[in-house]
């Protein structure tokens, strides 16, 4: 079944790319009048990454997805990068008027004394009128897409950290962990200070 899912995914990849283009246009259009947007981007999950996620298992050994072609929510994923943390609510509000929300989550460290990855994740239903021709002919097509909203500082931390996480071999030293924690805390603090400065200036 694993290879079958991968083969089917590759066969429908062009449909996912077409939908990705459609969603990119819609989001860019809807946010065209919103200030402080640094960039908007979408991507289709590459087949290798899809296979890794499709074959993931839970701690008890059971497969995480019984029907990965339909259940994996980020086969298509978008990202909106904004200047200030107060812009996140504005962007979320606009997009929630366009797309039907399934769930939203602010991802951040659970421990209040910790600093690290932060991002706002939305799962939206794929609108019928944005699906490309031929979509309805395929079985087990995804019904949702993911959209992340980050500030510049969130993004500046998350991307290098993600890159280093994949390239590291084994355990990293305590000193390196402390350096990463310092960078994460600095990004968190800079994010909030910049937003405070912006709101103070706007009050004048």
Protein described:
This protein is α+β, with helices and mostly antiparallel strands. The protein is 48% helix and 18% strand. Strands 1-2-5-4-3 form a five-stranded mixed beta sheet. α1 packs antiparallel against α3 and α6 packs antiparallel against α7. The protein starts with a helix and ends with a helix.
Q: Which tags fit this structure?
A:
alpha+beta; 5-stranded mixed β-sheet; 7 helices; 204 residues
Which stretches are poorly predicted, pLDDT < 50 over at least 5 residues? none
- Strand content of the residues, in percent? 15-25%
Q: Which shape, going by the Cα principal axes?
A: flat
Put simply, the count of helices is 7
From the helix content, strand content and strand pairing, which structural class follows?
alpha+beta
End-to-end CA span: 62 Å
Helix content: 40-55%
State the strand order across the main sheet. Answer: 1-2-5-4-3
Order of helices and strands: HHEHHEHEEEHH
Cα-based radius of gyration, to the nearest Å: 19 Å
Mean pLDDT: 87
Task: Give the strand tally.
Answer: 5
Explain briefly what this protein structure is:
The protein has 204 residues and is of the alpha+beta class. The protein has 7 helices and 5 strands. The model has no long low-confidence stretch (mean pLDDT 87).
Topology record:
Layout: H1 2-11, H2 13-30, E1 37-44, H3 47-54, H4 68-71, E2 76-82, H5 87-98, E3 101-107, E4 119-125, E5 144-151, H6 152-167, H7 174-202
Parallel strand pairs: 2-5
Antiparallel strand pairs: 1-2, 3-4, 4-5
